[in-house]
Amino acid sequence: MEDNREMLLKRVQICDFILVETNEYLDTHPNDQAALDYFKKYNEMRRTAAKEFTEKYGPLNMWDVEGGNRWNWVDDPWPWEKQ
Question: Which residues form the Protein CotJB domain (predicted)?
Fold first, then answer.
């Protein structure tokens, strides 16, 4: 059984894939309401999963770094690395 970290990371990655593909479709079909709704659904799912991952395991990318007194992006294993 996968741990929660792996599950959350996979959820983010799946949503990322879906969002990129849907974005490409919407670039050529901007008035497709069903596709836009699909994009919004997975965008929200990605936000939720990324927020949960970041709160529990640290930032997924440099934009998620909170800051502080030092650059803490390098403190934890990279999101794609196993612990």
Answer: 7-81
Q: How many CB atoms lie within 10 A of CB 16?
A: 15
Question: What residues does each domain of the chain span?
Answer: 4-59
Mean pLDDT, rounded, for 44-70: 86
**Residue 9's closest CA among 44, 59, 43?**
59
Burial of 3 (0-12, 13-18, 19+ CB in 10 A): exposed
Q: If DSSP states are collapsed to H, E and C, what string results for the chain?
A: CCCHHHHHHHHHHHHHHHHHHHHHHHHHCCCCHHHHHHHHHHHHHHHHHHHHHHHHHCCCCHHHCCCCCCCHHHCCCCCCCCC
Token representation of residue 82: 């196993």
pTM over the 0.70 mark: yes
Cβ-contact 5, 53 below 8 angstroms:
yes
